[in-house]
Amino acid sequence: MNFVAALNEAAAKNLRVLEDQIRQSISEDPFIFEACAPLIRGGKRLRPMLFLLCANAKADCPPEKTMPLATALELIHTASLVHDDIIDTSKKRRGVETANSKYGAQIAVLVGDYLFAKAFQLVAENNYGSQVQLILSKLVKNLCVGEIMQDRSLFVVPTMNDYYTRINLKTAIFLSSCCRLGAIVAEMNDREIDNLTAYGSGLGLAFQIIDDLLDFFGDETVTGKPHGGDLKSGVITLPVIRALTVSDNAAQLEKIVTRDNVTTSDIDAAIKIIRATDAVDYCRTRAEAHIDSARINLPLTLKTSATLALEQIADFVVDRTR
Ligand code: FPP
Ligand code: MG
């Protein structure tokens, strides 16, 4: 299922306005536009859409109140991907060449910094206030801590606990913050704010687990990035953690994933070992459990159309192929 197909008409209209605003936000400088436009084009817009859906979930929220922050969320996300691709020395993202591959790491660092600064400029110019700024700063800090945690333990098999801490910092806190910000901008009550935050958190954990599965088993022409990238860069994720506990070939798999010069044939061998276990089903079952918890947390006070859209996004997160 396509993510956009999950949206109701009002949300789809918001998405069109958002696309214009994102384009505008990178148009001030010709080089930044040239470097960022292809990258920005291929995103799913999950983060700004979650924010917009939550902000409009009880009553329509004026676009002046929502669009700058929605744009800022996508810019922060894109900035983090530009930096992530430098760290991972990735060549392809969202179906196009990464900034580091095209311009080198020096320029790519600055492109990421620019997008990041532009996001905070939008927030400051539109007077969102300290509560919003605090949530944004904390989510970026958590992204960095998650990434540092990951990079300090490359080629090391994490405990289940460490894996969850990492995906929470890297992804779940971002998605839950998008939902929380939507609820705050819409001036919902504390209970609704907390429930939408919990919805985003469940969604985020499921999203990252599926992302980690797609890294092994996704179709490169659909995901927009080559498969096996995590193993190559030494990031050990749930499919491997599970296979290591149940596979007859666990010793061989461990040797592959902890060696810091993984070849294409190593990746194929690892995939074969993982496939022979219940790891794929196990990851899906876990992701579905987080999605169930996300759904349960949806406040009963939302418009039916909003509940439906948020439920469909939950379905999209587990059924997605990119
Ligand atoms: C992609 O996930 C990367 C992230 C979720 C976070 C990366 C964060 C940073 C580099 C630090 C924050 C920096 C700024 C400027 C805000 P992934 O690596 O699991 O997935 P992938 O396969 O798409 O790379
Ligand atoms: Mg990465």
Could you walk me through the main structural features you see in this protein, from its secondary elements to its overall organization?
The protein has a single domain, classed as Farnesyl Diphosphate Synthase, CATH 1.10.600.10. Helix content is 74%, strand content 1%. The protein contains 16 helices and two strands. Helix 4 runs antiparallel to helix 6. The longest helix has 28 residues. It is globular, with a radius of gyration of 19 Å. The N and C termini lie close together (10 Å). The model has no long low-confidence stretch (mean pLDDT 93). The structure holds farnesyl diphosphate and magnesium ion (MG).
- The secondary-structure element order is HHHHEEHHHHHHHHHHHH
Q: What's the overall geometry?
A: globular
Radius of gyration of CA atoms, rounded to a whole number: 19 Å
Provide mean pLDDT, rounded. Answer: 93
Q: Low-confidence parts lasting 5 or more residues at pLDDT below 50?
A: none
How many strands in all? Answer: 2
Q: State the name of the first-level CATH class.
A: Mainly Alpha
Q: How would a crystallographer describe the biggest sheet?
A: 2 strands, antiparallel
Spatial order of the strands in the main sheet? 1-2
Helix content: over 70%
Strand content: under 5%
- Please identify the structural class as seen in this structure: mainly alpha
